[in-house]
Write a structure and sequence with these properties.
With 371 residues, the protein is α/β, with parallel strands linked by helices. It has 2 domains: 13-241, Type I PLP-dependent aspartate aminotransferase-like (Major domain) (Aspartate Aminotransferase, domain 2, 3-Layer(aba) Sandwich), CATH 3.40.640; 244-370, Aspartate Aminotransferase, domain 1. It is built from 12 helices and 15 strands. The protein has helices at residues 13-26, 33-46, 57-68, 85-92, 111-116, 137-147, 198-207, 231-241, 244-262, 296-305, 336-344, 356-370; strands at 50-54, 75-79, 96-100, 122-128, 151-154, 162-163, 166-167, 175-178, 191-195, 268-270, 277-278, 284-288, 311-312, 330-331, 345-348. An 8-stranded mixed β-sheet has the order 1-9-8-5-4-2-3-14, sandwiched between helices. Helix 2 (33-46) packs parallel to helix 8 and helix 3 packs across helix 7 (198-207). It is globular, with a radius of gyration of 20 Å. The protein binds pyridoxal-5'-phosphate (PLP). Pyridoxal-5'-phosphate (PLP) binds next to helix 3 and helix 4.
Length: 371
């Protein structure tokens, strides 16, 4: 049995053509009625007041600093245990990432380490959902309020997650979700910015279209991108979004099988799920410590040889990535948890439609290696 690490759960081509048909026939093939329907649906489902559909989460991350008015040369606090795009977007804006440590259980950014690393140059704080689990949103937002700093969220992996009973989408200055093929809800490619700030939403709406004035289209008002979402992508995204409860539920069930069977293997541990939040179930990561029967990298190689694709995730941590050595950055004095979890984490195959036979096959192989 060959298994890739991810496989998107996609609507059928006939459903897509049926939904996008009217736009296709009218010639409005980008930012038309299907994009607007997707934006409305995400507002309804997340409780956020405004939503802007984009070409990717990365394009959203690139535009957020400009939309928030963060001046180049200032610092933005991010976790180092994240996907590189969180911090790459800062480099595009001439901002300096300040890499903080993450908590050893949830693997989300450590609010106390953020506070220790604030400086007179700090311009914003960015929290990140890790494998689908939100960070401690309240602690971050409260810290931002106390220090007068905007807090925004890279919720790329978090669509479908909740924090204190509320769906992600309406927290902080804004949130940005990814709809790439690796995500629970996919538009093939895409991003969704959500916010309760009308001015910010309007700015991002203009910025996704080169920064155009919405009325006088010839005038450019913001430093923008070409980051619109096409009608075709929106149709896929809308059909996927309508299935979000079913997709998240399926993943949570699969994750609990993984946790039950693999989480207690000697020298292994799994992400902590605090009672105040739920995960979207984007990834299942098994952490394999030095005291396990084999190292994380040996398990990675053995599974690869057996036809099972896994991912060392997130690895290396962002502050160690070669790209970042060529740009100014600041690194917390103590990234001990980041270093450890990055060295131990191995993401295993997980799709909303993984079969029990596939789950059993992966679990049995891992048990043979580590049991
Ligand atoms: C935490 C995080 N941020 C940003 C991104 C980038 O998303 P996109 O591929 O939609 O640009 C990802 C994608 O995997 C991610 O996991």
């Amino acid at each position: 049995m060959q298994l890739s690490i991810i496989r998107p759960t996609l609507p059928s081509l006939s459903e897509i053509t049926q939904l996008v048909g009217p736009s296709w026939d009218s010639g409005t093939v980008t930012v038309g009625p299907t994009v607007r329907a997707l934006e409305e649906e995400v507002c309804q489902r997340t409780g956020a007041q405004y939503s802007v559909a984009l070409s990717s989460c990365t394009s959203g991350l690139m535009m957020i600093p400009g939309a928030l008015g963060l001046p180049p040369g200032k610092e933005v606090v991010v976790p180092s245990f994240t996907f590189a795009a969180t911090a790459q977007a800062l480099l595009w804006n001439g901002l300096i990432p300040v890499f903080c440590d993450s908590l050893p259980g949830t693997c989300t950014i450590d609010p106390e380490d953020i506070e220790r690393n604030l400086s007179p140059d700090t311009a914003a704080i960015c929290g990140v959902s890790i494998f689908g689990l939100p960070p401690d949103n309240d602690a971050l937002i409260e810290l931002g309020r106390r220090k007068g700093l905007p807090v925004y969220f890279d919720s790329a992996q978090g669509l479908g997650a909740t924090y204190q009973g509320r769906p992600l989408g309406g927290f902080g200055a804004c949130e940005i979700f990814s709809m790439s093929p690796t995500k629970v809800v996919t538009a093939v490619e895409g991003g969704l910015l959500t916010t309760n700030d009308r001015t910010l939403a309007e700015r991002i709406r203009s910025m996704r279209d080169y920064g155009k004035d919405p009325v006088k289209g010839e005038e450019m008002h913001h430093l923008g991108l070409s980051a619109r979402m096409s009608e075709l992508h929106a149709a896929v995204g809308l059909l996927s979004l309508r299935r979000i409860s079913e997709l998240v539920k399926a993943r949570k069930e699969l994750i609990s099988i993984y946790r039950d069977r693999l989480g207690r293997l000697p020298g292994c541990w799994v992400q902590t799920f605090p009672a105040d939040r739920t995960t979207s179930g984007n990834y299942f990561v098994l952490f394999i410590t030095d005291s396990a029967k084999q190292s994380r990298d040996e398990v990675y190689e053995s599974l690869k040889a057996a036809g099972i694709q896994t991912k060392r995730y997130f690895y290396p941590p962002v502050h160690e990535q070669p790209l970042f050595q060529r740009f100014p950055m600041r690194v917390s004095v103590n990234l001990q948890h980041t270093t450890k979890i990055s060295r131990e984490g191995l993401a295993l195959p997980l799709y909303s439609h993984t079969t029990l036979e596939e789950m059993n096959h992966v679990c049995s192989l891992v048990e043979q290696l580590l049991g």
